[in-house]
Amino acid sequence: MTIATTLEKLFAAEMLLRRDVPAPPAYALRMDLWRLWIRRQHSVWQVMREAGLAIRRGSGMRNMVARGVIAVIVIVSVVALLLRRRTPEAPAVVRNVASGFLTLEATPAEAAIRIDGRRVGIGSLRDSIAAGIDHRAELSAAGYADTAMVVRVERGAALVRRVSLRPLLGDLRVETQPPGAEVRVDGRAVGASPVTVRGLEVARPHAVEATRAGFGVARTEVTLQPSAMVSATLALQAGTTDVLVTTDPSGAEVQLDGTPMGHAPVTLHALALGRHRIGASLDGRQPTDTTLAVAADTRQVQLQLAAEPPGTLVVLGDLPAQIYVDGALVVENVQNSGPRRLAPGTHAVRVVLVSGETIDHAVAIKAGERATFDFSKGAITRRVEGGR
Prior knowledge:
Largest sheet: 7 strands, mixed
Shape: rod-shaped
Number of strands: 28
Mean pLDDT: 83
Distance between the termini: 135 Å
Radius of gyration: 52 Å
Structural class: alpha+beta
Strand content: over 45%
């Protein structure tokens, strides 16, 4: 054991502690070093000094140690010669290896990079490599096809390579309960359910969203498999929301899908999501209605009511008189007031004859209509403006 330890120390001093060796030595080279040590004729006493063995006087001890050392050296020499016959000569150690500079950029950035089977980086590599020889570069990342190439850099030169790994693809089938929902994958509309989307990258999860009138929004996230079909089923829940309805001017009667709901402003509680018809009406204003697509985030809707166009009033009779409309004198001592433009609604008409007789009557005026009040007959005739 002492002799073996000494040989290991000599070997370490000769080879293992060096830092300028480009590659680990082969077993044959280690045998060469042992033969070299023996060939240099290290004496028994030098071995003992290397091992720190005491050299004592006396022929018995000295002869015994000497015979032991010589025996070990002979055995090692024989083994080394046999191995030398079976193992090819190792190349000489290259102390100064020629090199070049390699820059390798990978997409995606999480791709693992290996050079000659050794992992050297993630996403990018900037390093010196041995020049003048072929090196095998391998790149791999989850969800992408592995890529391999041969790179060769000349001495003192720089080589730049940018590599994009081919993404692996999979298919997705989306179904909903109930069917017929609009489906979006990663924000892109893909059709109504059930629907199949092909050629999606498997390297990342995909966001799936489904919506349908009268229902809430259903969402999920799906991870795909290469060259395979993955199915996803989304259940849509019927949704409701509260919507405040206001009108301009205020106070109009509000109808929801033809049913009166009160006067604005009014809150429609638990309104089912989807399309609804909302209308409003007010005296003196044109009625209005609209179709509203109620979503989960719909909170308020306002309806504008335009003023109705005016109507025309004519007051006439057989005798001259003073004619008043809504308490204001229009004409006097004539038989005809002439056409008067009035807002739609009911208006008060008073006629005072020269005899002092007074006639009071209420006349309803409608938008776009001409009303004629004959105070002598007490009759009202109507026709559409512009007609006969």
